[in-house]
Structure formats: C-alpha cells, structure tokens
TrEMBL record:
Residues 60-248 form the Penicillin-binding protein dimerisation domain. Transmembrane segments: none annotated. The gene is mrdA. Residues 300-660 form the Penicillin-binding protein transpeptidase domain. One of its GO terms (cellular component) is plasma membrane. This is Penicillin-binding protein 2. Belongs to the transpeptidase family. It holds the Pfam family PBP_dimer. Its main location: membrane. It is a single-pass membrane protein. The lineage of its organism: Bacteria, Bacillati, Actinomycetota, Actinomycetes, Kitasatosporales. The keyword Cell cycle does not apply. Its EC number is 3.4.16.4. InterPro entries: Beta-lactam/transpept, Beta-lactam/transpept-like, PBP_dimer, PBP_dimer_sf, PCN-bd_Tpept, Penicillin-binding_protein_2. The keyword Membrane applies.
C-alpha cells in the first residue's frame, strides 16, 4: 500500500507551493504599490514630465540693444543681413534625408555641398565644428552673407527648397562711426557654450542661457550684457515619438534689449586714436641716443576724462584690431593673429591693463607726501646734479644742477635730486634699514590715498590695480621669490640680474634707501595704469575729488525711455588742503609755460592766456627696454593722459599728440587762434541725447554758448530695434568691479601677462 496522499502531494511539495504563492503575492503587492505611487501619489509630477517629453523649444533670438556715444551716434548696432537657414525637421521628412535639397542649396549659394551638409549636422562628442550645437528643431543658419538674388531664387522655388528660409536678420555690427575704432572699449560677442546652457537650464529670464544666445565677452558688451541682450522668444513645438512636429503648444515673442548711452564722443575718440598712432609713428622715426637705434614705440594708450564727473570722453589703446572679426564667429586664423606673441596682444586695453612705472608724473604725489610729512611749501631744497645714496650715484636728468629751489620749481624742471633728498631724509626718520615699530611711510601712504595700488572700479572688465611697492609688498614679494633668487645667486654669475639676485637672497624683504628714493620719482617697482593717472590729474583739476571712472551714462529702452541713469560716483578726496592744491596747480601750469613741456606747448604757440593747461612730464626707465613716455595734463574741463611704451621722453614722445588733442577739443589752430565754431567739445556734454518715438536718437549740434559746432540738426540714426513697452522698473546702479566671466569665455589676457608688466627696474625717472 502507498503512503502518498490522495492529492498526490508530499509535505515537501506543499511547502514549496506555499512559498511560491507567497512570493507571487508579494511581487503583485509590490507592483501594485508601485503603480499606486506612480499613478496616484506622484501622478502630477510624472504627467508633467511625460508632457514635456513631446515638447521641443525653438528659440528666436532677441535683437541686441545698441551702444551709443554721448550724442546718440551708434557705436555698436545691428545691421540687417540675409540669413539662409535650414529646418532639420523638414529635411528628415524627405526620402533621402534632404541630401538633394542641400545639394541644390549649395549650388545657389555657391558653396561646396560638403560645407552645407556639415553646417546642418548636429554636434556631439565625435563630431567637431562645423556643426550645429543648438536645438535640432531650431532653424540652422547656413550663411549670413546671402545676396538678394540668392534669396529670391530660394523663395521663388519653394517646392525645390522645402524647409529652407531666406530672411533679414539683425546681426551685430561695430560701425566705426566718425572713424572711431573703440575695439577694446566696446568688446565683442560670442555664442554661449554647452556648459553655460546646462548650468542655467533651471533658471528663468535673463539668468537662463539658451542655445542660440550670443553674450558679451569683453568690454561694455560684457559688463552691460544683461541690459543689452534682451529676452529671446520661444516657440514650443509638439512632436511625436519619432520626433516629427505635430503641432504648436505656445509662443512667447522676443523682447529687444535696452540701449546703452556712453560718455564717449566719437569725434574726439577719432582724434585721440589718430594722434596716438601718429605719436608712435613719429617715435619710430626718432633716434634714441641711449640705445643707438630708433624708438620701437611698440604700444601705447591715451585717455580723455571729464574732470567734473570722471566720465571717459575718449579711450584709445594701440595696437588695436577690427572688432567685426568676432561677428558671426571668429576664424581660427584671425584668433591666432589676435593672441600670438607677434601680434603684441591687441585685445589688451592698455588704458586699464597696461602697467608701467609713471616716472616723474608721480612727483605731484611725492610733493603731497612731503607736505604731509612736515616739509614746508615755502622751503628751498637742494637740486644738485647727483646724489650718492647707499654707495650708489643717483643722477639728475642730464646732470643738471639748479641749486636750492622750491618744490614748485622742482616740479617745473622735474628735478629728481630734490625728491631723492626728501625721500631719503624721510626714510632715515623712519629708522632706515632698521625701521621703527610704526614708521610714517608718508610716500607710500600718500600713494595709496591717491588710489594707486587698487582698481579704479571703471565699468570695464579685467582692470589691473598697478602696484605700490610698500613694506607689505616687499615682504610678500620676498617670500614668493626667495628660493629662486638664492638658486640664481649660487650659480655665481656677474650680470646685473645676478647681482640683484644675490642682494635679494639675503635681505630682499628690507626697504632699502634705494627703494625709497626710486619710489619718490615713480621708478623701481612702482606700476600705474593710464586711467589711474587720468583720475589723479582730474582730481587736481576739479578741486580734489577722485571720481570713479565710468563710460556708461544711461540705459535707454528700445522706445527711447530712460530705464536708469548712471550717476558720477565720488570715491575719495585729495589728502592735502586747498593751499597745496593751488600750489601744485601753479607748478603744473609752469610746466607748460617754462618747464619740461614748454617747447611742445608755449613754444608751439599754445594760447595759455586764453585756455590754461597744466602738465607733468615723465620718462620712465625700464631694464632692458627703451624709456616709456608719459604726459599727464589737465585743463578746467579735461584730463588728457598719454603713454607710449619705448616711445622716448615724456614731452618728446607725447607732447605734440596731446597738444593736438586739446586743439581739437577747443578749436585752436597751429598759430594759437581760438575758433569756437571749430571746437569739437569745448565743454563736456552733460545732457543725454533725445530720442524719436521709434527709439532712434536725434543727432543735434551740442549747444555751447558762442559755438556752431555739431552735426546737422534733426538727423536721426536708424535702428533695427522693434519698439517695446516703456516704463521699465527702476534698477539700482551697478558697482563697477570685475564681473564674473561666463564659463567658456576666451581669455586673451592670460597669454599676455608679460605685456602688462615690464621688467623690474631700479632706474631713475626723467622729465
């Protein structure tokens, strides 16, 4: 008889079936719970995601705002170009994937078929440029240089070119109005990168970058990008699971960017640029008796500043370049030409990024420092042909001996030894090589009070601070370079560099007598920028106010309404009293009439009795290079500063050019006659330009008493900007410090660091 139950199951089989049933029920319960979680608990979230899966965005770029000069002339605007674009969606609907359409298009445009096909392919990790890195549903531009005839052929044969459009599109254009270049001031645009798009995907409005966006990468285009860029339009397309467009889910129209009015006068800018180039060319034709060759004059900068506000009227940097090279994407060849060492780095704005020793232009600071330290304005100080300090001879320029002279005379004739003596005496009072616990350091303190060693805060990116080589800097510099100095010293060389390394290895942190006296005449390790010196001499002209330099005056809506005005900003006051200011004012006027600049001004017929100018010349020595020419000047309205690297003496290299700039400003001819009708800008322009209802600027003559200067009345400047609603919300003024550069920004400055800071020199300054 069998012991198997009637069911045919053993106890073991029954247990297994129960376990299996429990497992199945558990899986069913888990699946049910998950379905409940997805379909009920989080239904809204996943419904939204599912809906988003079949929505694609097509971006219509906004028209970028214009950058205008002080009278409303367009410096950076937009021009209509015929852009031929191709829709990939339409191409994929063709049997051959659109190959035939692209072939016909290439024939009409006169382009190789391969080039057209590459432009419309999508970029990925394996596909390099040329390719399209935007949305595959976005019309892809094939060319922005189509002719009217080509556009007509395409539009008249629509059946042969499905998905191909040819229509006018606004493209950035740097106008060169009045012949002004302004490349480094205006900056340039470039497309956003994939990283920038992905990092801002969750943001809204101007904080979100879209694949078709062009953003500012340098100059005003960068600092005021949010104002200028506008808001792109977005069309949402519904697509099926194969990516085919089946409808439209919504459209948001683009909103044009605001316009930026600057303090630049395009006519004055042209004059400044031309005279800077002329001065450099003249220097290259001048023989340097020290190096026995002509001056190289490899770079230079010039600034014209309104002394009453700190606003920049003109800013030139040389060498320069055509900013339109960036429009539509710069070629590799052009980028190499702009950034190679042989180019001398034209992307640099040497007015805010060019650093060099100021030479004797620094002596107005040293005069102030001496008075703060207790030296009398009424005293007389020895001006021998040379002084021996620390076992080394420090000479006066051309070894001239003026005897005992006043500080005023010392400024006029630029006597180095007077300032050597003052600085050495103060160094000794501070304890010499073994300084007191709390030394006065008046010369260094005063330089900081004048704003040196710090950025001015101008509304341009990548400004450099210059350098005040005080005790703190000496210690920091020593800590960073001690090992290198000692390693060089151990090699036992006899060059000047080797001698300096041996000295610095032992006690490079100490403030030596030579450091102190060199600093007093703007030499040694001192570095300044032209815009810093323009601000200093503007303060001397206006009664002692240091204004923050600015270029932008106001943001204007596309319809011509004021969005916000950018008011002048006071940063500091002159550290001395009005008596000292008047004293320096009188001394710098003497530089024009009988001092180191007299042969270029009074001797050349400048009408000092009608238009009083003030100046200080500077000839800075740089180890291994020819001298740097500096000329810092001011009138009751303007400060004009020019510097030329390896350009000769202060007055010899820059004197004629600076005088011609003043002649253009005030309408002075070569014989000293003043004609207000020929003056470009006899007084700074304070009012904003007026605008037509359509947002175009009304170019009128600038009204000055007794003048007829200006452009034809009533002229207006055309624009592509579409009117938008006025009355934008008031925005707080910007703080003009370096804006954070977007990821992927080209960094032309990094390769040019050596161009920003010349070789350190212990040489003396000259007039």
């Amino acid at each position: 008889m069998s012991n198997i139950p009637e069911t045919g199951r053993t106890r073991r089989v029954t247990i297994r079936l129960v376990v299996l049933q429990i497992l199945v029920l558990s899986l069913l319960a888990t699946l049910g719970g998950r379905l409940w979680y997805l379909q009920i608990r989080n239904a809204k979230e996943y419904t939204a995601k599912a809906t988003g899966n079949h929505i694609r965005e097509v971006v219509e770029p906004a028209v970028r705002g214009e950058i205008l000069d002080a009278s409303g002339r367009i410096l950076a605007g937009n021009e209509a170009r015929l852009v031929v674009s191709v829709s990939r969606t339409s191409l994929l609907q063709q049997k051959d994937g659109g190959k035939a359409v692209l072939g016909r298009l290439a024939g009409v445009l006169g382009m190789p078929a391969k080039d057209v096909q590459e432009k419309v392919r999508l970029c990925d990790a394996k596909t390099q440029q040329p390719c399209w890195n935007g949305s595959p549903y976005q019309p892809i531009p094939v060319t922005k240089e189509a002719t009217t005839q080509q556009a007509m052929q395409i539009m008249e044969r629509r059946e042969d070119f499905p998905g191909v459009t040819a229509q006018p599109t606004a493209v950035r254009r740097y106008t060169g109005v009045e012949g002004a270049n302004l490349a480094q001031v205006l900056g340039y645009l470039s497309p956003v990168t994939d990283d920038e798009v992905s990092k801002t995907a969750d943001k809204k409005g101007l904080d979100r970058y879209l694949p078709a966006d062009q953003i500012g990468r340098a100059g005003l285009e960068s600092v005021y990008d949010r104002d200028l860029r506008g808001t792109a339009g977005i069309t949402q397309l519904e697509v099926d699971n194969l990516g085919r467009v089946i409808g439209t889910a919504g459209t948001v129209a683009p909103q044009a960017g605001d316009n930026l009015v600057t303090s630049i006068d395009a006519r004055v800018q042209k004059v400044v640029e031309d005279n800077l180039v002329q001065a450099m060319n003249d220097a290259r034709n001048t023989f340097d008796k020290v190096t026995n060759r002509n001056y190289e004059a490899d770079s230079g900068a010039a600034v014209v500043m309104d002394v009453h506000t700190g606003r920049i009227v003109a800013m030139a940097s040389a060498p320069t370049y055509d900013p339109n090279l960036w429009v539509g994407g710069i070629s590799g060849k052009d980028y190499q030409a702009l950034t190679s060492k042989d180019s001398n780095f034209p992307l640099l704005n040497r007015a805010i990024q060019g650093q060099s020793a100021p030479g004797s232009t620094f002596k107005v600071i040293s005069t102030t420092a001496a008075v703060q330290a207790g030296y009398s304005l009424d005293g007389h100080y020895d001006c021998p042909k040379s002084m021996t300090i620390g076992g080394r001879e420090f000479k006066n320029f051309e070894s001239e001996n003026f005897g005992a002279i006043s500080l005023e005379k010392a400024l006029e004739v630029s006597c180095d030894t007077v300032f050597y003596g003052l600085a050495y005496d103060q160094w000794m009072k501070d304890g010499g090589i073994k300084p007191k616990k709390d030394p006065g350091d008046w010369f260094f303190k005063t330089a900081h009070q004048f704003g040196l060693g710090a950025k001015t805060g101008i509304d341009l990116p990548a400004e450099v601070p210059g350098r005040v080589p005080d005790r703190q800097w000496k210690q920091s510099f020593y800590d960073n370079n001690k090992d290198a100095w000692c390693a060089q010293a151990q090699k036992g060389g006899n060059s000047f560099s080797d001698q300096i390394a041996r000295e610095n290895c032992v006690d490079g942190y100490q403030m030596r007598a030579g450091d102190a006296v060199n600093f007093a005449i703007g030499q040694g390790d001192t570095l300044v920028t032209p815009v810093q010196m323009a601000r200093i001499y503007s303060a001397l002209a206006n009664g002692g106010t240091f204004y923050r330099p600015t270029i932008a005056k106001a943001v204007i809506s596309p319809s011509g309404q004021l969005v916000r005005e950018i008011a002048p900003h006071e940063d500091a006051k002159f550290p001395g009293d009005q008596k000292l200011l008047s004293y320096i004012d009188q001394a710098t006027a003497g530089v024009i009439t009988s001092g180191t600049a007299a042969w270029k001004f009074a001797g050349a017929g400048w009408p000092q009795g009608k238009i009083e100018l003030h100046a200080k010349t500077g000839t800075a020595e740089v180890e291994g290079k020819q001298t740097t020419s500096w000329l810092t000047t001011y009138s009751k309205d303007y400060a004009v500063v020019m510097t030329i690297s390896q350009g000769g003496t202060g007055s010899g290299g820059s004197g004629d050019a600076v005088r011609r700039i003043y002649q253009a400003l005030y309408g002075v001819d070569d014989k000293g006659n003043v004609d207000n009708g020929k003056a470009l800008l006899p007084a700074p322009q304070t009012e904003l330009p007026k605008f037509n209802p359509d947002g175009t600027a009304i170019i009128k003559p600038v009204a000055y008493p007794g003048t007829a200067a200006g452009t034809a009345a009533g002229a207006s400047v055309g624009t592509l900007l579409a009117p938008v609603a006025a009355g934008a919300e008031e925005v707080q003024p910007l703080t003009f410090l370096d804006p954070a550069q977007p990821t992927g920004t080209p960094v032309p400055y990094a390769a040019a660091d050596t161009a920003l800071e010349p070789t350190r020199s212990t040489g003396r300054g000259r007039a």
